[in-house]
Structures are given as C-alpha cells and as structure tokens.
Amino acid sequence: MMRKKKTFHDRQEELRSLLTTPAGRAELERLVARYAEESGRLRPARTSAVTYILVHEKELGLIAG
User: Fold this and answer.
1) What angle do CA 49, 51, 53 make, to 5 degrees?
2) What is the band of 64 on the pLDDT scale with cuts at 50, 70, 90?
C-alpha cells in the first residue's frame, strides 16, 4: 500500500514541532545523520536541520509539491 505524500508545508510543520522537545531534536539529528550518510552531503553550517531534511526528502520524491 502506498502512503499519500505529505505536502511541503505539512512536513515542515511536522519537523518544526520536533524542535520543541529534547527527544524531538534528537530525532531530527538522527534524520540529518542518516540523510547525510545516504547522500554523501553534509549539512551546510548555516542550514537548519529542518531545511536539510526537507531538501533531502523533496529530492527523493517523498514530499508532494
């Protein structure tokens, strides 16, 4: 079964909500580390974890629009 793709805005809000707790921030850093390993591209110094994740997921076609 294929899941419906999330919109960019919905995924952005979902990721931003993770910033509110230590566990959520740790989850964001795990995603950043995983995506950096998969892509071979490190997160630029001035790029937020949320932006880095969104760009990676958009490139993979995981986000609609």
Assistant:
1) 65
2) confident
Long-range contacts of 18-23 (CB under 8 A, 24+ apart): 19/50
Q: Which of 10, 24, 8, 14 is nearest to 63 (CA)?
A: 8
Q: Look at the chain and count its residues.
A: 65
Q: What is the pLDDT of residues 9-54, one digit of tens each?
A: 999 999 999 999 999 999 999 999 999 999 999 999 999 999 999 9
pLDDT at 65: 72
The DSSP secondary structure of 1-64, one letter per residue, reads: -PPPPEEHHHHHHHHHHHTTSHHHHHHHHHHHHHHHHHHS-PPPTTS-HHHHHHHHHHHTT-EE
Contact 63, 8 (CB under 8 A): yes
